[in-house]
Amino acid sequence: MAILDLACRHEVGPFALEGVLKIHRPQLIYLSGENGCGKSTLLKIIAGHLHPGQGHLRIGSNLLLDTTRGINIKPEYRGVAWQSQEDSLFPHVSLEKNVSWWHRYPRGMELAQRLETEPYLDRLPGQLSGGQRALGLLARTLATPYEVVLLDEPLASLDDAKHELALRVIQSEVQRGRTIVMIVHHPERYESVVTLPRSLFKIELN
Fold first, then answer.
1. Among candidates 63, 77, 15, 67, which has minimal Cα distance to 40?
2. What's the pLDDT score for residue 76?
3. Would you call 57 exposed, middle or buried from its count of C-beta atoms within 10 A (0-12, 13-18, 19+)?
4. How far apart are CA 180 and CA 20, in angstroms?
5. Which helix (H) or strand (E) segment is 181 a member of?
6. pTM for this one?
7. Residue 65's beta-bridge partner residues?
């Protein structure tokens, strides 16, 4: 049984995203491709923030989307961690409450320490630099217990040292049995990058 099994067709004006994505074991997938090829769209469909015209999605044994049967599970019930390109930290609470989801997910504190944001936990997001906010947001996303994690260019604002630190933490999460799909901005910095073409795609990862 695949961890993730997606087939979809999604059209917006002249743009069409169509293809198959199957992932058979926990791993880190670096997803790249030219601007406008549908990378973020693909992640939004998996997360449930976009509803394709045709398709189905299973994560493990759970059927989350089937357009022929009228099934479309809401994002909050899909059991998928999703981080968009936008800075979505909760602006009026401390970084500590952000990374732990008001202490609902205590792993956030551990991840904040590993990502070296622990000294800033008492600050509001507006009091942090862009890199500090990016690391805090990553800690918040990884703190959730979900086995499938979708990251849309989470490291783009980090300097080289923080980039390597964050990447090590992400890779360590795969060792815990998680599947992480991460859109990357500079594919030459990574190994085993999967390129999403503009045309019909078929990606099957064993």
1. 15
2. 95
3. buried
4. 17
5. strand 179-183
6. 0.96
7. 57, 72
Q: What three-state secondary structure class fits 12?
A: strand
- Gyration radius from the chain CA atoms: 17
In angstroms, rounded to a whole number, what is the distance separating the alpha carbons of residues 105 and 97?
A: 10
User: In the prediction, which pLDDT does 198 show?
Assistant: 87
Question: What does the CA dihedral 75, 81, 87, 90 come to, rounded to 10 degrees?
Answer: 80
What local confidence, expressed as pLDDT, does residue 13 receive? Answer: 83
Q: How far apart are the first and last CA of the chain?
A: 11
**In 3D, which of 18, 21, 16, 17 has the Cα closest to residue 6?**
21
- Distance, in Å, from the CA atom of 78 to the CA atom of 72, rounded to the nearest integer, reads 10
Dihedral over Cα of 188, 189, 190, 195: its sign: negative
Per-residue pLDDT, 51: 96
Tokens representing 129 are 């630099």
* DSSP conformation letters of 109-171: HHHHHHTT-GGGTTS-GGGS-HHHHHHHHHHHHHHS--SEEEEESTTTT--HHHHHHHHHHHH
Q: Which residues of the chain, if any, have pLDDT below 70?
A: none
Question: Of 83, 86, 106, which is closest to residue 96 (Cα–Cα)?
Answer: 106
Domains of the chain listed by start with CATH number:
27-51+79-205 (3.40.50.300)
Measured CA to CA, the distance from residue 65 to residue 50 in angstroms comes to 11
Q: How far apart are CA 110 and CA 127, in angstroms?
A: 21
